[in-house]
Amino acid sequence: MFKLHYRLERRAIGMTLGIIAAASIGGFVEIAPLFTIHQTVEAAPDMRVYTPLELAGRNIYIREGCYACHSQMIRTLRDEVERYGHYSLAVESKYDHPMLWGSKRTGPDIARLGGKYSDEWHVRHLLNPRDVVPVSIMPAYGWLMENDLRTDDLSDQLTAQRVVGVPYTPDMIRNAADDAYGQANPDSSRAKGVKTRYGEETNIRSFAGAPGRLTEMDALVAYLQILGHLTDAASRDTVAKDLE
After folding, report:
1. Under a CB-based contact definition with an 8 Å cutoff, are residues 86 and 233 in contact?
2. Type and span of the H or E element at 161
3. 244 pLDDT higher than 60
4. Quick check: 88 pLDDT over 90?
5. Residue 90: which region, alpha, beta or left (left: phi > 0; alpha: psi -120 to 50)?
6. Chain-centroid distance, C-alpha 117
7. Which helix or strand (DSSP H or E) is residue 163 part of?
8. Could you tell me which residues come within 8 angstroms of residue 53 by beta carbon, excluding any fewer than 6 positions away?
9. 180-237, pLDDT tens digit by residue?
10. By the 8 A CB rule, do 63 and 147 touch?
11. Cα separations in angstroms, 85 against 30, 44, 120, 153
12. Rounded Cα–Cα distance for residues 58 and 105 (Å)
């Protein structure tokens, strides 16, 4: 076997053809499944997009490197499902660019974190993790409460997401900054437009507990509270399995 390889290395054309053949096999294995992706990805007609505030929170989550310690991919293993909930479905990451799956578990998986804790819990946890989890090794993110959220570029962010397939409408893009403020300030005149564009089930409240302001803390908590709730595909899958 090794002698054959040594002889092949001495022949440039043969080595080139061998590399092409090996790369073609690997490429076929990776590309072929994409032609049947419509058969393997679950349908989710109720799937909704991130609001501008949630999308801004996701960007902050990426900026601060949170994904390095927290995966968003629950495996099908029994201990994973019992601890974190229904295993992750491909459709749940349909509008994630980039997707935040992973295998790093310094902290727990947060794919279904939304609604598990209160907004106040998340704020305290981000300000000083040891206040709510004494053994936590997570760093504090106090500046999120101090930093006002930048909103002048939210329309551009939604436009970029639309280019890669996220179905943001022109109305959503045009009102991105107002919707971000309205979602975190329920008493403002801008709050009504958020439900009109993103649905009645949208979380609208002062996430960081500072009405009248719009901080990076509001955005990150809004994002954390929607994780696992962009679609009910997982719960429907559970019901279907129970009926079988």
Report:
1. no
2. helix 154-163
3. no
4. yes
5. alpha
6. 18
7. helix 154-163
8. 149, 179, 180, 183, 184, 218, 219, 222, 223
9. 999 999 999 999 999 999 999 999 999 999 888 999 999 999 999 999 999 998 887 6
10. no
11. 29, 19, 23, 35
12. 19
- Residue 198's Cβ-count burial label (10 Å; 0-12, 13-18, 19+) is buried
The b-or-e profile of 68-106 (16+ CB within 10 A means b, else e) is ebbbbbbeeeeebeeebbbbbbebbbbbeeeebbeeeee
Distances in whole angstroms, Cα of residue 165 to Cα of each of 28, 161, 194: 25, 7, 21
Q: Are 226 and 50 in contact (CB under 8 A)?
A: yes
DSSP for 138-150 reads: PPP-THHHHSBPP
DSSP tag of 215: B
Structure-token pair, residue 4: 């054959």
Q: What pLDDT does 240 receive?
A: 52
Contact 205, 54 (CB under 8 A): no
Whether the link from the prior residue into 52 is cis, omega within 30° of 0, is no
CA distances, 107 to each of 68, 75, 116 (Å): 9, 15, 16
Sign for the CA dihedral angle at 193, 179, 224, 227 comes to: positive
* CA-closest candidate to residue 185, choices 208, 209, 205, 215: 205
Cα distances (angstroms) measured from residue 184 to each of 15, 33, 54, 228:
61, 41, 10, 20
Q: How far is the first Cα of the chain from the last one, in angstroms, to the nearest whole number?
A: 51
Total-model pTM: 0.84
Tokens of 96: 């994630």
